[in-house]
Amino acid sequence: MTEQVQPLDGVVVLDFTQVMLGPCATQVLGDFGADVIKIEKPGSGDLSRTSFRADGGEHDPIFWSLNRNKRSVVLNTRDEQGKQAVLALARKADVVVSNFRPGVMERMGFGYEALAKENPRLIWAQGTGFGDSGPYRHKGGQDILAQAYSGVMYRRPDPDDEFKIYATTMGDFSAGMHLVQGILLALLARERSGRGQKVDVSLYDSMLSAQMQEACMQLNRGFEVNWGAMPLSGVFPTTDGALVMVGAFKENPLRDISIALELTEDLSERPDLATLELQIAAKPELQQIFRERFATNTTEYWMARLEGQDLLSAPVQQLAEALADEQTAVNGMIVEIGSDPQGRPMRAVASPVHLSATPARVRHRPPRLGEHTDEVLAELLGEGDADGGAGPAGGREQVADAAARV
Question: Where are the alpha helices (DSSP H) in 295-354?
């Protein structure tokens, strides 16, 4: 049976990224067929290989989650032979991706101008903290810093709430997905122009973009929009957990909430609650009424009541519960990506992009450090000792010899 062609088959990606912003982008490319060659430094490689050391060594599920469908090549880019190897690979590549601070790739000799001279069709993509220029250019890019600088951290449901770090790395993820968009758009443009280009995204810009509705209102009306502060929505404890209720998108949601919560009165008929503006002013009282009612019964009971009035609601689930949820299984959102050193299946979250004719596929488990150095150099450059070698990170000849010298 002929293997199915994927959208990015034949696209070669040199991946200098590590941690999350870059790796989550290049994994998308690999999931849909690109040959992602992960360039790693000798000895340690990607920082996420040892984020938590759950099993010791480099076998870390954090690394697994971001690096399937990639091949690992160890090169000492501080060595002249290592630099020459990267330049030779860049001549064969379609895309180069990094997420260092601005200027690092240039100091290494792999900046856009330098590599474009070697390969005018090359797409050179980078993800940074704050952009390639400006007053914050020099700062290290990190998800939590972007939350703080962009206004995301300041905006909270109640002005009396403490400032908190968002528990999931949404800045890294959204910037990674914007990086994928930029690369795919540049590949499409190259089909028409024949030339590559530079792609630049940042955590800061991605976090601002995530607030596009709120920002547009602020810029044009000077009005603060806060969806989490709406008076008829919230998270409420029940006798066996908690649920979230969204009292919106209806003609008179307060009336329907009153019915669902079996209140003795229709709160929407009170003159002091007749409009959204009045409900916003009375939010503390309304939220207290809701809390008291939800605390009298189970999550399942109240969800049935709310759904009976066509009100949006959901249980507040732990991640473990969400992963075990039937909907997760139906959507095919858990995928096996190989076996760990003990032979146990390695499982991860699958691609959320479902294509009917050319779906994402797992072709390679997350690579061991330097596992494919000889293979890639022999395949793309015709150099290196593809058969000999002293393990995953050693035994290179000629241009690959730089991998073994730190």
Answer: 299-308, 319-324, 326-330
